[in-house]
From TrEMBL:
Gene name of the encoded protein: glmS
GO molecular function term, any single one: glutamine-fructose-6-phosphate transaminase (isomerizing) activity
Oligomeric form and interacting partners: Homodimer.
UniProt organism field: Actinopolyspora mzabensis
Compartment(s): Cytoplasm
GO cellular component: cytosol
The organism's taxonomic lineage, starting at the top: Bacteria, Bacillati, Actinomycetota, Actinomycetes, Actinopolysporales
Full protein stretch here: 257 to 624 of 624
Protein name as annotated: Glutamine--fructose-6-phosphate aminotransferase [isomerizing]
Keyword hit for Repeat: yes
Length: 368
């Protein structure tokens, strides 16, 4: 049942191309996004002038990525907030506010309560969930289901990639409703998304390399993750995976923050995983990250670099180089997260832990 794998999580990591294509299938037709349920009028959707994304854990990290896409495509301000913080600070909500609630299980108590609070304030709620008929979709005005299939491993993997795709679909739906993108542009963005299952399939070829790398990292005291722009949520997700599975101290930072504190943590031999931005899409950021890597390497860090194929400039600074295919900037997290998932799972396995059932964690958190 584990498809020849030692544990479900590895099987689910390898199922990510299908999870993505199943999530995209049927959600785009005649030049537009098709939601699964819509109890809100096109006019109301058009009038949305503020978006809040609420979620917990890995779903929250996918939400951080939604902000880049929605602001870029729709020109609406987006705030991303941990569901457990959202309703306790009296957020400014109204009829023209859209709250996007992301929850794999559809049952997470904090996210559900955030949805309920939003509704009492007359905000519109759109749910993204992997579970048909679960509570959060039931209490929402619109629903887009990810079709990642059931996830047995407690740590979210394929549902994370599916959530990212779903968030981008919601971004396109809003752009369409608001008229900030023409049909041909929407079709172009969707076609780029539709090419991602193949890109993920190709990044899965790095699995043996990452498994081998994991054997040399399992005794590290801590691991840091650095990224910028869309690489920043990926760094947070890489760190979360390592904490929850391998019980190691791990932290993700925005690389630009290094000098404002975290660089003091760098010591001889400390592994630092760095996400390089896309060369074409973000050449300025690329140069900045190069200088960050140079700084940490000079202070003794062991650099593990995730970079696009053909990124020659980074080679001298990479003690380990994991190559990913070049894809459009907003879509890079769909490929760059994959090696981090494998790294965390394999380090956990080498440390003798149950990868599918990490201690103290539950698949669905139904208490606040
Ligand atoms: C981490 C993980 C959790 C969940 C979080 C939200 O691997 O699985 O952080 O992402 O508990 O769960 P859902 O998406 O079901 O609301």
């Amino acid at each position: 049942e584990k498809g020849g794998h030692d544990y479900f999580m590895l099987k689910e990591i390898e199922e990510q191309p299908e999870a993505l294509s199943n999530t995209l299938r049927g959600h785009f037709a005649d030049g537009g996004v098709v939601l699964d349920e819509q109890r809100i009028s096109e006019q109301d959707l058009r009038d949305i002038n503020k978006v809040f994304v609420v979620a917990c854990g890995t779903a929250y990290h996918s939400g951080l990525l939604a902000k880049y896409a929605i602001e870029h495509w729709c020109r609406i301000p987006v705030e991303v907030e941990l569901a457990s913080e959202f309703r306790y600070r009296d957020p400014v909500l109204g009829r023209d506010t859209l709250v996007v609630a992301i929850s794999q299980s559809g049952e997470t108590a904090d996210t559900l309560e955030a949805v309920r609070h939003a509704r009492t304030q007359h905000a519109r709620v759109l749910a993204i969930s992997n579970t048909n008929g679960s509570q959060i979709p039931r209490e929402s005005d619109a629903v887009l289901y990810t079709h990642a299939g059931p996830e047995i491993g407690v740590a979210a993997t394929k549902t994370f990639l599916a959530q990212i795709a779903a968030n981008y679909l919601v971004g396109l739906a809003l752009a369409q409703a608001r008229g900030t993108k023409y049909t041909d542009e929407l079709e172009h963005e969707f076609a780029e998304l539709a090419a991602m299952p193949d890109a993920v399939r190709s990044v899965l070829e790095t699995v043996p390399q990452v498994r081998e790398l994991a054997t040399r990292m399992c005794d590290a005291k801590a691991v840091l993750f650095l990224g910028r722009h869309v690489g920043y949520p990926v760094a947070l997700e890489g760190a979360l995976k390592l904490k929850e599975l391998a019980y190691m101290h791990a932290e993700g930072f925005a690389a630009g923050e290094l000098k404002h504190g975290p660089i003091a943590l760098i010591e001889d031999g400390l592994p630092v995983v760095v996400q390089m931005p896309s060369l074409k899409g973000h050449s300025q950021l690329h140069a900045k990250l190069l200088s960050n890597i140079r700084e940490i390497q000079a202070r003794g860090a062991r650099t593990i670099v995730i970079a696009e194929e053909g990124d020659e400039a980074v080679r001298p600074f990479a003690d380990e180089l994991i190559e990913i295919p070049a894809v459009p900037t907003l879509l890079q997290p769909l490929v760059s997260t994959v090696p981090l998932q494998v790294l965390a799972a394999e380090i956990a396995r080498h440390r003798g832990y149950d990868v599918d059932k990490p201690r103290n964690l539950a698949k669905s958190v139904t208490v606040e």
